[in-house]
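Issue 218. Parser rejects a valid record. Input:
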Amino acid sequence: MANTIPFMDPQCVECPLWQGHRCRLGTRSRLRYRRLPGGATVYHQGDPPQAVGVLRKGYMRLVRFNDEGRRIGLGLAQSGDLIGGMLERPLDHMAESITPVHLCQVDAAEFERGMRADPVMRHEIVRNITEQLSRAQELIWRRGQLTSRERVVDFIVRSTQIMLSEDQPDGSVIVEICLPRSDWADLADTTVETVSRTMTWLAARGEVQPLQRARYRIADPKRLARMARLAA
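Output the parser choked on:
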């Protein structure tokens, strides 16, 4: 029978990730709870993995620079995602906070001991890594199959699923997209100018209505998904 460290950080007790069995770092000793502002670099590409953590709240961008120095957006880290890498290899991308974030971390060696000792923790880590890989594969598919306009529409549709949103009585959805448009462009593999033109095009057709403070009314999410070739 596997042994676990009988430790529970007080920060974990009310954490929805712990309550939902999506995080097991609370079974580790020397748990660090960090709050970082938007724009902070958590680690750089090529760094040795000194700490591994779980994103508790907020959003982070995952970015890689290729051999020519081109910046490539790899995706968006969200609540519950593993942040960091394993002990043996340098990190192949960088992670930056987009919004203020809450992050729970342990050192990499402690994390690997937990993986060996706690089968539930190991299961959850594998589950999340698989989920992140699936999202990365979908991102590659969208970049290869959709036009730049469709990719921007796709981003808006997906934001209703992962960001704060409110269903309205008329069937519309109000979503708060708390990312700067440069991140919209990175995730859609396009330019900020294309994002702006697409938003103007959608607004003229009554599909998306800009509200105040990064909030948007989506008239019909299913119709918008069809416009991005995401649904039949």
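Fixed in the parser; the record now loads. The two ends are 49 Å apart (CA to CA).
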